[in-house]
Amino acid sequence: MGWLKVLMTPFRRLGADIERESREWRIRCTHCGHDRSVWSAGGIRYKAIGVKHTVGFCSRCGCMRILRLYHPVKAP
Q: What is the count of structural domains for the chain?
């Protein structure tokens, strides 16, 4: 059992890093300005840079909208 624990430790840290970084990234509706973390929206952003625009469902508008994914510190 000891060797399994040794093998799993890096993956636990990786999972924690992915969650932490995804919570830092934000997703904003370009129509109404509704903003929340990518993690709370069910997404993952890890080792990403820049700003991304995608089409998705805005929970406030109730419609498909263009969503902006950005990091508040890294974004221009």
A: 1
Q: What is the tens place of the pLDDT at every residue in 22-68?
A: 999 999 999 999 999 999 999 999 998 899 999 999 989 999 999 99
Number of residues assigned to the chain: 76
In a domain, 76, yes or no: no
**Domain span holding position 63:** 2-70
* Cα radius of gyration (the chain): 16
Q: 58 near 65, Cβ under 8 Å?
A: yes
Residue 11 DSSP symbol: H
CB contact at 8 A, 20 and 29:
no
Please determine, for residue 75, whether its predicted confidence score (pLDDT) is greater than 70: no
